[in-house]
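My current task is to audit a protein record that another person submitted. Thanks in advance; the entry in question is below:
***
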Amino acid sequence: MDTDVAFVLREIRNPVPMYYSQKRLVEVPEFNRYFEFDFEKADWVKPFGAGQIADALINVSGFYNELDDRKSTLTIHFLNEHDGILVGDWFPESRLRSPHVAPESGYQQEFTVTFGQEKEGRKVENFGSRESDPLLIFRVRTEVDNEGNVIRANYGKIEEGISFDGVWDRQSHINFRYLFFNPDPESVSLEYEGVISR
């Protein structure tokens, strides 16, 4: 018997060119120390990378006492009080999981991901995860008027989230899975149209 299958496609509204980085591995220069990060370049600010504008401070911190007593934390702290990350999964059933435009509010200035192991008596418990939520929307370089309304900002998103290595690994990297950056400060679109050459 034939079966009809219906597919619902999300409409295309206002796609824009974006900077795009796929599986961007950024090596952590040093543990337990904050480094400036440029989201447009998807890299550390010079001299540790090719970045030019410090959008946030990023730190991988933690400790390793033994295999069942260790902890590692990734912290992203945005330098502008109006900048930040918004965690969500608006359309989990779709390959296009983000909204068409960036939300106006809800951005948190500091974002952390923690994982490790701890021992309680004879029992060893894993906690946290080395991977963040699957969709992160960020806002940087925000300008506001006298009433605190956003007048200009750069928006972007990280699809499939961020993962990172622990402080006990020989080489630690932060993996920005699929990072999109909208370079137009007048646009709130998160729809990806094409690649802009860096």
